[in-house]
Amino acid sequence: MDVKKFKYAIFLALKILHGDMGCSIPVDILKYREKDRRAIIRIPSKQVTKIWSALTLFSSYDDLECTFKVYKTTPVLSCLNLNSTMYNHKEQDKCTEE
């Protein structure tokens, strides 16, 4: 599935659940990885509930079963790069400034 079809699937999910008002919600695909169909999307924060519910209830595209899975949400895009498993914590006695 290419990025245009991916965005169209989101559009369909919004239209099916919320009608014409749903498909008027702006959705930007900031990054898309075709091999596993993962994307970073930008949406208005006031519309999170509508978009999340539409994606959760969406179940088929072109007569094929499909699902959307939300891995992470954040109000600040730069937070998507943060990963606590990669952070090296200092030992407590080394945390004081010298």
TrEMBL record:
The keyword tRNA processing applies. It comes from the Eukaryota. One of its GO terms (cellular component) is nucleolus. Keywords: tRNA processing. GO terms for biological process: tRNA 5'-leader removal. Pfam families: RNase_P_Rpp14. GO terms for molecular function: ribonuclease P RNA binding. PANTHER family: RIBONUCLEASE P PROTEIN SUBUNIT P14. Belongs to the eukaryotic/archaeal RNase P protein component 2 family. This is Uncharacterized protein.
